[in-house]
Amino acid sequence: MSTIGGGDGSGGGMEAESVEVRRGRALSLIQRYTDRYDSYHVLALVQQHNFEEGILFLLNDLELHHEIFLHHAKVFERRDAPLADRAKAKEALLQTCRNRVGTGTDSERELWISLLSLFVRSDLEDVSQDITFILGHIETHDLLPPVAVIEILSSNPTLKLKAVRAYIIKTLQKDSSSIRDHQKILQDNTTKAAKLFEEVQQLQTSATV
Question: What distance lies between CA 109 and its chain's CA centroid?
């Protein structure tokens, strides 16, 4: 007696497709017919079935960058997840933020700040270089005041100094340069004021004579 999805060896039954094949077919349909369905409705369905490839495609198609970030962040923060999956999620997080570079939007700023906070509190040991890279980007594009950055960094007392050394040095150099610039402006203004005062006195003396 044959059963559904199986058989008695005589053939004629439909072989069960592998999960990978079915997911691949579903993703192909989603990608091919984007103009024939409500993307938000389908997104809810693929999220319900935890269809990651479909989720990421639709999030990208809808340009929901913050949701993409959160999707990868959930995997990255799961301490019980395989290290390979967490490493993949880490790279995806970095790429999500890189994709927003140059947009000049609040979304870009918020993503980079969220990325720094996420990596600083991470239990993984291989994020020091990434933190250095993130700090460099934040400093270069002036995304966050140094005091706020230090506050985020101080949330992890075990953070290695080498990860933040370059940022601290650049910040101090920038502050020193800013102080010198302000001192020069103050000196120039003082010189101009003294010269103006002298000219006023000369005019008063001439008027008296």
Answer: 8
Nearest to 52 by CA among 75, 36, 34, 78: 75
Q: Which amino acid is at 104?
A: G
Give residue for tokens 């799961």: 78
* Reduced DSSP (H G I as helix, E B as strand, rest coil) percent helix, strand, coil of the chain, to 5: 70, 0, 30
Q: 190's torsion region: left (phi>0), alpha (psi -120 to 50) or beta? A: alpha
- For helices 128-140 and 106-120, give the axis angle rounded to 10 degrees: 150
Q: Provide the 10 A C-beta neighbour count for residue 175.
A: 11
Instruction: Please answer whether residues 131 and 163 qualify as being in contact, where contact means their C-beta atoms are separated by less than 8 angstroms.
Output: yes
Contacts of 9 (CB under 8 A, 6+ apart): none
- Read off the DSSP letter of residue 125: S
Contact 138, 116 (CB under 8 A): yes
| C-alpha to C-alpha distances, 94 to 8, 190, 193, nearest whole angstrom | 52, 49, 52
pLDDT tens track for 136-172: 999 888 888 888 898 898 888 888 777 787 788 877 7
